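Changelog-adjacent note: as of this version, every example in the card shows the full chain rather than a window. The one below runs 223 residues end to end.
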Amino acid sequence: MSSKPILYGTYSSPTVNGVLMILKALNVDFEFREVRPLKKENQTEDFLKKNPTATIPTLETEDHKFIGDSHAIAVYIAERYGKDDSLYPKDPYKRAKVHQLQHFCNSILFTSCVKAAYAPVFARQTNTIPEEIYKRIEEAFRMLERFLEQNRWVACERLTIADFNCITSVASLYSLRPFTEKTHPRLYDWFQRMMAMPIVVETLSSDAMTASKRFLQKQLSHL
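Full-length structure tokens:
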């Protein structure tokens, strides 16, 4: 039985990739076990015992307890394995801002934009994305631009777990609605800095991510 934390998920998932980046950033020795929702591997009796909501990522701790939701997992990892508070500030205001951006990532970037745009395509229900989704993406990018007027990083003046969670969704949306230094100068600067990090490059360049991009390009008639 593994004494390492175990992350359940798939390498093509933005929410899983955010957690993977945080694990790597903190040099955590962990095990990865693939669970593919498209094959309903998250609906098995065994997995539902681990996470009743059937979502990925799911983390199994070293003492064999289970945590669902990427943002809850990110907080746990930062608290459990962080040698300092650099990725998850102890200051109450800064920590609240991290939580704010985590919720923004979950509700706006991922659920309202990434999931709404891509889930029907992966399920082969459509090969187009409604204009309404593009409008949501554009508004989400405007919100991020305003957040970044306050700091160089999304939540505060330094890199935090919120940046890793946000970059995975932003990278997924960028292929649908690219932004430039002229249209979104602060977002563009943050995006370039994040995409230059080896941890980010490695995670977003996995074979699974490459295969997902190829599938989407094939399915979406306008890409």
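Structural remarks: The chain has two domains: 6-81, 92-221.
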